[in-house]
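Example A, followed by Example B.
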Amino acid sequence: MIIDLMKTFMSSQTVMGKRFRKDLERRNRQMPREMESSKNMMSQNQLKSGGHPYIFVIGATATAVIDPANWQLIVIAPGIVPGPTGFLVDNHYLDQSRRLWSVSSATQPVMPWEAPAMGRVSVWDARSFRNEKTIGLGQNVVNTVGLTPDGKFAVVPISTANKLNVYDTSSFEQVATISVGASPWDMMVSADGKYCCEPDMDSDWLTIVDPTTWKVSGKIPTGEGTAPFMVTISPNSKFASVEGAGHHGGIYAGATGPPAVPTGKGFTNTYVDLTSKSVIKTLPLDFLAVWDEFTPNGKYDFIFGPLAAKTVVVDTGTYEVTETIKLQSTPSYITPDPNGKYVYASVKAGLQVIDTSSLQIVNTVPTGGVIGTPLVII
């Protein structure tokens, strides 16, 4: 069963993404008409004026906007048209011009009359959702794009080429290419700008790149067979949280590879000290963790994935699980509020609000069927 789930996930650039998108499209078509036409809803022009924080839940076909002052859904705006592999918006970080950078992988045609889709990077205005730039990446599997803290550079893992592409976010020019290990999946630059961390799934290590030179400065083994593939760096830039898939290889549309093979290590989350470049602790998990998010003060790390209706909360003082919070459904994504008071989980029922003091769900705000990435915009 687990192997089957892994095979499904490892081919998620097509299978899982398409299935999820179709489900979202079906639900979004069923949104109550009164939500779209209510005279009491705030216009998009008002939202663009700024000054007040709003929570944007960016879905495949629509975007739900929530006012955190009263936890009310105030508008469902047009969403970003999804690419052939599902969501284009897959992170909540903005560049120096307050734009979102997202990616879409290449796919091979299923039917004879279909044309292959090429991999690409898409740049979007975070308020109007207007596409401002598309960068072609050919027949490649492309994974989560990350940004430097100042928003001046975007880093894109090219999984099928075992490299990272670095782009100037002002000119959109590629300024560096970094060769890394086998199957890079994710990356993140630390808040202090000293580390660019990138896990190499089939090499079982975390590659560290110096963002001032874009040169590899170290490789941290996460353990044989851990298959690290996602990473989040703590707010204080001292350590990184690395999700382990416990499987090597994968099947991608557009890039032929072997089926995902279990390594026997299971699913894990490994904490790595970035100063000493060593493993602090590895926690076994009973589900495939794909993402995690720290509270702004770094006290808690919320670990979650698309196959489990829960989030595991780790206390970073002890690196032990302190709470497991059951969600209404498997989350699309979980995002911390910059104010540190809440963490937002996008689920089928709406936006679940988690209080970071009690680690309890204190509200579920209906979003009219929109599920996506929560993004706090002021």
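Example B, a separate protein, is given below in the same form.
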Amino acid sequence: MDIQRPHRRRVLSLLGGAAAVGVSGRAFAQTDSSRAEPPKPAQIVVNHSGGSMGSAMRKAFFNGFEKKYGIRVVETSPVDFGKLRAMVDSGNVEWDLTEIGGQDAIRASKMNLLDKIDPKVVDRSKYPPTAQNPHVFASSVYTTIIGYRTDVFKGGTHPKSWADWWDVKKFPGARSMRNHPTDNLEFALIADGVPKDKVYPIDFDRAFKKLDQIKPHVTAWWSTGQQPAQLLLDKEVVLATGWNGRFYDVIKKGGPIEIEWNEGALKQGSFAIPRGAKNPYWANKMLAELAIPQQQAVYASELGYPGLNLESLNFVDAKVKPYLPTAYLDKQFWISDEWYAENGTKAAELWNAWMLKKA
């Protein structure tokens, strides 16, 4: 068979065509890749509680996100479950990401108000199993613990358990507790000998019977987060239950207060993506930013409320680490949002009735 050699022009034409195919192949791959990542919006909207928390989130997460992606982060507040529900039901969702309380997060998940978090975008492999809800991102953790005046309880002589807290003879002095069933019901049962991992379901009768014993020694029932630390500073009480971040804020300013972490009641701060959000991919990207351990360390140093990427402790200043609840997880217990979602109304009714009784 006589095979003719192609003319030079023909060869060049073929080569040019191959090159064109190669170029267009790369271009197609780039186009296909860009389709996998939606176009960048001018902004995303993050709804949260505001105040010092908002300032800390701006420093730790939002500024970096804006610099990294060129997308402005618009902040709104306050957190509002009713508004979240109305937005989703109407199909007019203003928020791309919103903070949400523990019990509300459970309700929202059951009511199909939230998008699933994309595990391909948000890495939670270093998070505890309790903090890997498919619809809810655990952004931080805080705890209710014992705060005490160091000039009254010197050299480790302070109460170190809830049984000690109830022992007013060994540990005398005015006390302050939160005017709320959450934490107090659990503390009462633990003081009465219930192991902290066996608190739920709560035995109301047993808990309130134990609370009857401590009620005469509680001189102030607090309702806002800043009150316990202020009561201690003003010497109105010598012992107070309170949120670790509020005590930490006073301690880092030199206040005569310290913390006992044993048997603290842990809770997580949470964020979620509303179903129907305009920019769900970029909301997931923001959650990914919130999961970076180095950035969580910045946030923890500001407020004392660390993230739940346990590697973040490796990036926290040695002076700050002793004031973070994640350094003491094994000593504490988690408040059950699931139990309160089912029983919270009854608990509140019983608590309010109990508060009206004379000590």
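On Example B: The chain has two domains: 43-141+269-315, 143-266+328-356.
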